[in-house]
């Protein structure tokens, strides 16, 4: 494997373990503004579930680069932990990690306010444990939330599946799916849709699941997918992912099916690029950024596959998978990429100006749409 690597200038970040929260490359002309939304009114993604189901671990591994083994030492969460990831991520939202047992009857717990501003509710079920109690809790939580805000996306993570055999995984998913939907049918809540994912922090499944959760909240997803389709079909590229670099969530991909291996390969490439950049990309005086406008990398694998990464915005990178022979037309690919990048910036600039002109009456609840760094703010 050869790596042709153009190291971007790195900031005073440490190595991979202490990955920066903010890549820190400054505003440029036409750069996308940070959201002026006060943090408490930002749309949110809630992480709920029984104690020790793995909520804090998911949040730390996906958004804070914690290694899965370190989560063994996480202490139990005792109050709602609000994590505002908008300064480091394309996705301009808050993640609220709830303590295991939320008491809906506690008068200090204003669940109506919480659910009103929620885009997605992720309910985490520990698949290695007896999940009967968790299913009861799931039902109570989603039915309450649905009554307050039927626009919420309800996502169920059947978590810690690394401990299960393949057959057992499928059987567990089928059983949980069946029971959860039976409970909803009994309560005449058939319209409430639950989506299920098998997840583990020990592989890429948690990033893949989070990607899907976030994609549902991106209003411009069809436009992004279209742009990716046009880009790859005119450039001889097999697969392209638009990544939020810090979290490795892919916010869009072309319409060909995603196979887990390709996704993992692209995630690994981002890790390599950022790690090398953090170690060798520093200026002598320690200034610079681990990810900036110059960031790009080409990795040629021994099976005639090429991985090509390029910066799109402050938070986003395009990672493509293509054959070596297609890469011979690198000039064409680069030209098409230039057009693609310009189009993405235009989508976001239109978004920002739309949000500047749109007025939202005071007190209007923020609904489903999650605001993005560089995309329209919530307009409901
Ligand atoms: N095997 C396995 N263990 C996991 C996984 N995710 C989390 N864990 C472990 O589960 C335990 C509990 O994780 P936490 O993240 O603290 O759980 P929590 O839901 O936030 O717990 P509370 O704060 O008490 O509500 C830790 O020991 C984690 O290492 C996973 O995907 N697989």
From TrEMBL:
What keywords sit in the KW lines? Answer: Cytoplasm, GTP-binding, Hydrolase, Lysosome, Membrane, Nucleotide-binding, Nucleus
Segment Disordered: which positions? 14-43
Biological process terms from the Gene Ontology for this record are: cellular response to amino acid starvation; cellular response to amino acid stimulus; negative regulation of autophagy; positive regulation of TORC1 signaling
Among InterPro entries, the record links this protein to: Gtr1_RagA (IPR006762), P-loop_NTPase (IPR027417), RagC/D (IPR039400)
The GO terms describing molecular function are: GDP binding; GTP binding; GTPase activity; GTPase binding; molecular adaptor activity; protein heterodimerization activity
| Entry function | Guanine nucleotide-binding protein that plays a crucial role in the cellular response to amino acid availability through regulation of the mTORC1 signaling cascade.
What is this protein called in UniProt?
A: Ras-related GTP-binding protein
Q: Which organism is it from?
A: Sinocyclocheilus anshuiensis
The root-end lineage is: Eukaryota, Metazoa, Chordata, Craniata, Vertebrata
